Amino acid sequence: MGRLTTHVLDTTRGTPAAGVRIELQREAAGGFTTIAEASTNGDGRCDAPLLGSDRMQAGTYQLLFHVGAYFRAALGREASPFLDVVPVRFAITDADGHYHVPLVVTPWSYSTYRGS
């Protein structure tokens, strides 16, 4: 059963990033359309997969992680993080696969990978 999941880790504080707004977009007709939105829980994860087996399709997607608002709230309103919205564009080629796309982030840098 295919699914898409994610989580966000704040390496500045060494904790999961709770309350990060995430948009999932799918490419169609030359542009991207938002098909799901969620926020991370206390463990830095979404409460449910962003895509479940009923909605998984091959195609090009992007996750938009709204980390600027998270860091302003976590570090104080005066904080001025370098990053605001982190886009991660990727392809789903196997609609039956498990795609896990985590974000490891600070106010100034990020990393991602295909997890398990």
TrEMBL record:
This protein's record includes keyword Hydrolase: yes
EC annotation from Swiss-Prot or TrEMBL: 3.5.2.17
Reactions that this protein is recorded to catalyse: 5-hydroxyisourate + H2O = 5-hydroxy-2-oxo-4-ureido-2,5-dihydro-1H-imidazole-5-carboxylate + H(+)
**PROSITE patterns documented for this protein:** TRANSTHYRETIN_1, TRANSTHYRETIN_2
The organism's place on the tree of life at top rank: Bacteria
Q: Kindly list the GO molecular function terms attached to this UniProt entry.
A: hydroxyisourate hydrolase activity
Tagged with keyword DNA damage: no
**Which residue intervals define the domain Transthyretin/hydroxyisourate hydrolase in the entry?**
4-115
Per UniProt, the enzyme's principal EC class comes to hydrolase
> Which InterPro entries would you find in this protein's record?
Hydroxyisourate_hydrolase, Thyroxine_BS, Transthyretin/HIU_hydrolase, Transthyretin/HIU_hydrolase_d, Transthyretin/HIU_hydrolase_sf, Transthyretin_CS
Keyword terms = Hydrolase, Purine metabolism
Cite the record's note on assembly.
Homotetramer.
Family, similarity comment: Belongs to the transthyretin family. 5-hydroxyisourate hydrolase subfamily.
**Function according to Swiss-Prot or TrEMBL:** Catalyzes the hydrolysis of 5-hydroxyisourate (HIU) to 2-oxo-4-hydroxy-4-carboxy-5-ureidoimidazoline (OHCU).
- This protein is called 5-hydroxyisourate hydrolase
